[in-house]
Amino acid sequence: MQASNSNNTNSSSSSKDNNTILIFDATAFYAGVPFLVCNNGSLNYDYYTTPRVIEEIRHIKHRLDAVNILVSMQRIKVIEPSDEYTVKAKDCARIYGEYELSDTDISIIALALMLKDKQPYMNNIIIVSDDFSIANVARAIGIDVTFITNKGIKHIIKWIRYCKICKIYYYEELRVCRVCGNELRKRKMLKR
Fold this sequence. Notes:
The chain is of the alpha/beta class. It folds into two domains: 2-8 and 16-147, 5'-nuclease (Rossmann fold, 3-Layer(aba) Sandwich); 157-191. The protein is elongated and about 55 Å long. It has seven helices and nine strands. The strands form two sheets. It has a six-stranded mixed beta sheet. The protein has a three-stranded antiparallel beta sheet with strand order 8-7-9, with no helix packed on it. Strand 7 and strand 8 form a beta hairpin.
């Protein structure tokens, strides 16, 4: 796994020695990451995911049994982010033109936002994912991302839609051009 280089630091401390939160998306479960890191006995990490992720991996029976064991042992906490943070996550995704994020992807970003606000004593909140769209939004809002099987993203990108026939740009969630009906394409508008 490779981590991006943004820092979320806070000098507050909790009664526990934990200072890092790892939030797993479905790609982390498919790669087996939670089964490796949750069993290493590390006291410096708290592990989280959302009910939507658990639902998404439900079709992998042997993985789900292992997840249920980790949840029952309280090694992984399954938390539903509040509606307030879900709305914030959707707004952030829209700002960066990431309209294809699923409700599961949004739930991961929302959980990271919620934990960042509700648990300020944590030094690092890191999403574990190979999803470039999740990584783009997360990094844009100051949340670290650790990639599992690839090098991840180098820049935060703001996407726009455009029609290659009419040469019209759209700054909203559309799939077809309002003028000609042609399928819209994604184009990088801004990198930072």
